[in-house]
Amino acid sequence: MKLSQILGASGLAPLVSACLLPGEETGDGSHHLYRRQESGDTGFPIGSGDRFEGGAKFPRGLGTQEPGAQLDSLLSVKEIESAMKGLVNEYGIETFTMPYTTYENATMFGGKVGGRGKCSEAYHVYFNGAIHARERGSPDNLLYFISNLPRNSSSEAFSGASAFSEPETRNIKWVMDYFPKIRWYHDLHSFAGVVLYSWGSDENQARRPGMNFLNSTYDAVRGLIPDDPSAGIVYGEYTPSTDWSENVYAAMRTGNAMDAATGRHYEVQQAAYLYPTSGASDDYSYSRHFAYPGLNLVHEFTVEFGFGDENATCPFYPTAEQYHLNMLETGAGYMEFLMASTEIGLGDEVACSL
Ligand SMILES: [Zn+2]
């Protein structure tokens, strides 16, 4: 999530340079960013060693441990990699790397879990995470969750994890092209305490198919919330009513499961009501089959886990308690998302050799 969006969404105004990404330091003039008192509180620490010993050990999610189990620290980048190697060694999970390296020259990678067959058409659910660097705990949540999945291997899931940001959208596109039967896409970010469903570009409408992002007639009015009737056009982004109701249903199931895990409340809403976006990767994934009818419909969801750490030098850095609550919530949300998506439908049954 972008800083200005977080500010607008959370009301958590004071932020410091520890949090800022290049380009955010000057701001756009609409927000006054100022330096918080230097508390030095950076939240739950990042691991300094390698608890998975280069893959000799594997992560075990909180769901498979005693209630109240605590993890020692956030996963470092090195540990994210060794945790994945541990899962490969323990469960035979296949991994792959994506073609576009980040600005820090890091390679983004993913893992394949379940799937009826070995071909790339056998995977229907895409969990994306760790796209934004400061969103601490995102890869941890995903890795610890998928460490539970091989025990319930009836789940068909594809999961991806990556280290640090950019050029993430090209890799997301690549993944969707490489796994052309992905039907469900779940993108994990922090922090806002929300589960978002499509569209992000404008308010949904289901009655006027011609009023859509492909129609340049509406280029000047798309993204305006609320609309300006005096301009003569009230715009809504077209979504077929079936998609709309399925998206709401899956998002509600996910949000309710996250609520039930800890008692904190996640708001479920259409993405455009949090902040209208244009050309974001979430809308991109749902837009593909409209723009290119040969492509698969992809239901897209963005989950912003957590609620911010107001005492830390950067609110994206969770306390130890928040880190564990976040993990319990995202784990429950992931599982419910898989069940809801399976119930609604994973798309074409794919026949490929096992
Ligand atoms: Zn983000």
Description:
The chain is of the alpha/beta class. The protein has one domain (3-199, 239-344): Aminopeptidase (3-Layer(aba) Sandwich), CATH 3.40.630.10. Helix content is 30%, strand content 12%. The strands form 2 sheets. The protein has an 8-stranded mixed β-sheet with strand order 1-2-4-3-5-10-6-9, sandwiched between helices. Strands 7-8 form a two-stranded parallel sheet. α3 links the parallel β3 (125-128) and β4 (157-161). α3 packs across α8. The chain is globular, with a radius of gyration of 20 Å. The protein starts with a helix and ends in a 10-residue tail after the last helix. Residues 2-16, 26-35, 152-157 and 159-165 have low confidence and may be disordered.
Class computed from helices, strands and strand pairing? alpha/beta
Helix-strand pattern: HHEEEHEHEEEEHEHHEH
Distance between the termini: 39 Å
Bound molecules: zinc ion
Q: What is the fold-level CATH name, i.e. the topology?
A: Aminopeptidase
Largest sheet strand order: 1-2-4-3-5-10-6-9
Count the beta strands.
Answer: 10
Largest sheet: 8 strands, mixed
**CATH C-level name:** Alpha Beta
CATH architecture: 3-Layer(aba) Sandwich
Query: What count of domains describes the coordinates?
Result: 1
SS field, number of helical segments:
8
Percent range of helical residues: 25-40%
| CATH evolutionary superfamily | Zn peptidases
InterPro entries: Peptidase_M14 (IPR000834)
Domain Peptidase M14: 74-322
Organism: Apiospora phragmitis
Signal peptide: 1-18
